Amino acid sequence: MAKVSTKQNERQLADKAPPKKRVPGATRKKLLASGRKEFANRGLEGARVDEIAKRAGVNKQLVYHHFGNKDELYRHVLESIYQEIREREQALKLDTLPPLEALQKLVEFSFDYTAKNRDFAPILIDENVHKGRHMKDIQDLESLHSPLISAIEKILERGRKDGTFRSGLEPEQLYISIAALGFFYFSNIYTLSAIFGHKLDTRDTIAKRKAHVVKLITDAVVK
Fold it and tell me: Who contacts 186 (Cβ-Cβ below 8 Å, separation ≥6)?
């Protein structure tokens, strides 16, 4: 009887192995992650569908199958970013914390998210170059922002009632200030480093900036 080679055995076992199960939505998630990197690096105009598909490890046609075109993928990337932020904010359970602690935690989260996700600022800057036209096309855009504004409103109201915060504070204006203080720092970190003559992208300088932002916001709202 002829001996079966090791390679033949391996091929036979491979043929008998059950096919890998497809994870629902896995390809879509890969394309969103790949698109996020490509759009952050090159912007909408410079991004290439070929490169997005290559990084995701899928056929180029799957980009069009799942999203239709590059603009739609870009819009879905924007939407997924804000969904991610809102989900993480909800996980903070701010309503269970005293008002001042809740506000501090929200400010810290906002700063940390921008610090840890350096692709966030470039994508938003690019979308503002396009005058927010893709954001406007997001279905139920209000639902991505109203929960946060509502959460801030409740924090301020609780703080006003217990005497911690002063009255007359506007949730929307406070949200813009919280977001801006971290966003500006990281979106301009290299030019600011050049201007001041030292690196602002170190662990110590980022921690110092974070502490400053938290204190600035809390000092602005307490009595």
Answer: 114, 115, 118, 121
Provide the token pair at 170: 């506007």
Residue type (1 letter), 188 = N
Global pTM?
0.86
State CA 98 to chain mean position distance: 26
- DSSP-derived secondary structure letter, 21: P
Backbone angles phi, psi at 222, to 5 degrees: -75, 155
Compute, in degrees rounded to 10, the torsion defined by CA atoms 118, 124, 125, 130.
Answer: 150
Of the CA atoms within 13 Å of residue 93, those in its CB half-sphere come to 2
Question: What is the tens place of the pLDDT at every residue in 26-59?
Answer: 999 999 999 999 999 999 999 999 999 999 999 9
Determine the residue type at 85.
I
Neighbouring-strand partners of residue 202: none
Q: Which residues of 78-115 are buried (b: 16+ CB within 10 A; e: fewer)?
A: bbbbbeebbeebeeeebeebebbebbbbbbbbbbebbb
Decide: residue 195, CB within 10 A, 0-12 exposed, 13-18 middle, 19+ buried. Answer: exposed
Structural domains of the chain ordered from first start: 77-221 (1.10.357.10)
SS3 label, residue 192? helix
